[in-house]
Amino acid sequence: MCLKKGMVIKMNHFRANGEELLACLGELAALARERQQPGLANYLEQQAQKLRDNRFHLVVLGAFKRGKTTFLNALLGQDILPTAVVPLTSIVTLLEYGEHLHIQVVFKDGATRSISPEELPGYITEEGNPKNEKNVRHVQVKYPSDYLKDGLVLIDTPGVGSIYQNNDDETYQYLPQMDAAIFLLTVDPPISQAETDFLERIKPYAARTFFILNKIDYLDEQGLRQALEFSRRVLAERVHLDRPVLCPLSARLALQGKISGSQELLEKSGLPQFDRSLRQFLMEEKGRAILEAAVTKALGAAAELQLHLSLELKALHTPLQELVEKIGQFDRALEEMRQEQQDHTFILEGEINKLLRETEAAIGSFREEKTRELQREIDRLNEEKTNLSARELAETIKQAVNEQTEKFLSAWQPELEKETIRKYEQIVNRFVAKTNRLLDDVVRRAAEIFAIPVEGFSKLEIVPGKDPLFLSIGEEISTMFYVDPMKVQVMLPRFLSGPVIVRELKRRAEEQLDKNCGRIRHYLAEKVWLSSQQFKLSLEDKIRAASQGTREALERAVTLKQASEPEVRVAAATLEEAARKLDEIKHKLLTIKENINTIT
């Protein structure tokens, strides 16, 4: 597969339009500062920085020992991350661009520590940091790779399905933060049930998933064809993917080719073909979305600036007494709007609280229902496993309860979260409609002076909790002075200890389920609360922008009205020149918008 000429042209167009858009944002910000509108200038500079950063989280996922870390090293062209024969990576590692290699450990308490490459295995491997005893949140590696430029962040995760449960936890809790995924399979062993289950879980989080069939250098051409057909069939039938595309690849050969500079090894590895597919996705889908959003915001800011310029020009030709009266009308309209907005906010908070009560009730019903199911399962195992000793019975029941609990929660929590967000968006959308109608009314009432430029809330942003949700399954009680009754009972004959074991395991099953339901309740409550707070702050900012910029423009006009005639002529000429510059910028922005829409 080669990079077609049309694709090269398309990528160049995206890059050229992005550079032109950055220039327009810079010109708009400078003009806003000239017109004494620092708030608008800051907003435009923030949009330019977002466009420059262009951060995109691409997470590498898969079962343990599928070659994820070797694959990432191959992409970077250097042995940066440690690899080994045994399952190794145990901590999420973020790779992003930096002028020099720099590694920083971020701990769960927020502390950080810079380390050398030789120290890295001591923090991100199971051997160096067993069960994450060092309380590492993640490790950030900055490296001067062209692959990491333009905001791409590659993320290495522990393999799921290893013997280390904490490794699975580290991977699962990072899922909500990814924008797209690279999922590694291998030719031997083939795709497993655990991998198809994991793929079902990541589907709600990844806008796009790239599949790699790794270790193809172990097969001949016929074997590779069979492995590809088998994996595609399993992905279609079990994960319900429509015509999944797999890229055959050898991460080992790719890394060797990069390090040795052998183009022959690189082509044989299959890495260049995958690289082109990934870059096409990043340029087309991600690039288009980012550019469209930035152009829309730039045009909105330009419209606001233009209205303020028009207002000042109009005010220069309005008698002073009439201008003062119209300012008074505007102030009264704004005060009425603020009062009504406070009433709407009070109603919003009430509906949010009602949603949280409904969510809590749903969690309570789920907890009660699943507790009964777990207790029935414990009774069933106790009755059926009559040949087991007390110790074997306890272990069998604990394993079954842990597996069942995780299955219950893993299937239910995403659905509950989706439904809670849907209801939240319905509430906020109703509130948005009321607010926009209110702002439109103020605009009409003040139309004889100016139009108030306030953006609508076209999209809602759901803010994640400060920490990703993770479940706690199968944790053992461990305190210095606590005597675990199970450790005593399992040493007794089963006819004596059986009833006590069953009763204790039922209690623990209920406690474990209750604890995880509590975590889910806290996670969703925080998510909704943060979203509503951000929404209210955004609204306040927009109302403040609608009034502050306009008030300052009117006050400048009043000051000029009291100046000499030559000063008024100079001010008018300055305003007309600024309006001319603004027209040129708007024309450029509309051209960029048209260019983006015509790139196919």
Tell me what you see in this structure.
It is a single chain. With 600 residues, the chain is an alpha/beta fold. The protein folds into two domains: 54-269, 3-Layer(aba) Sandwich (Rossmann fold), CATH 3.40.50; 318-562, no CATH class. 64% of the residues lie in helices and 8% in strands. The protein contains 15 helices and nine strands. The protein has a nine-stranded mixed β-sheet with strand order 4-3-5-2-6-1-7-8-9, with helices on both faces. Helix 1 runs parallel beside helix 10 (271-316) and helix 12 packs parallel to helix 14 (494-561). The chain starts with a helix and ends with a helix.
What's the quick description here?
The protein is an alpha/beta fold. It has helices at residues 5-34, 38-53, 68-76, 121-124, 165-172, 193-202, 221-238, 251-260, 263-269, 271-316, 320-384, 390-445, 485-489, 494-561, 565-598; strands spanning 56-62, 93-97, 102-107, 112-115, 136-143, 152-156, 180-186, 209-214, 246-248.
